[in-house]
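FAQ: What does the model actually see?

It sees only this:
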Amino acid sequence: MSYSRLKAVVAALLMVGVAMPAGAAMTVGTFLARANALRDQGPMALMSPDLPALKAEAKAATNQLKAERAARAAAGKPPIACVPEGQSVGIMDMLDGLNELPASYRKRPLKDGYARVLANLYPCR
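And it is asked to produce this:
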């Protein structure tokens, strides 16, 4: 398996998993530090004990954003981002987007970082 294909597999694995308790939310900075370190491991990343935790964090943040979007819609508020129907953001694009956020976002919950990346990629007009 090529290194780039392995990175894609690891990235896909980061997006699935079991949600962690709400009180255990990871910050953008912590997630990035751990995810970037994992990405740098190449094929060994699949054996890392960090992989399940990062998968769970990514899934929990995604689920929180989905719930927040539904709550905003129910309250008649505009969405934070307008992702076109059937469109999704890959984990590599999400990691790149998180890495590009200002330093002030590093201390915020991962969900907030994901929301900002989505708003940057798919602003509502």
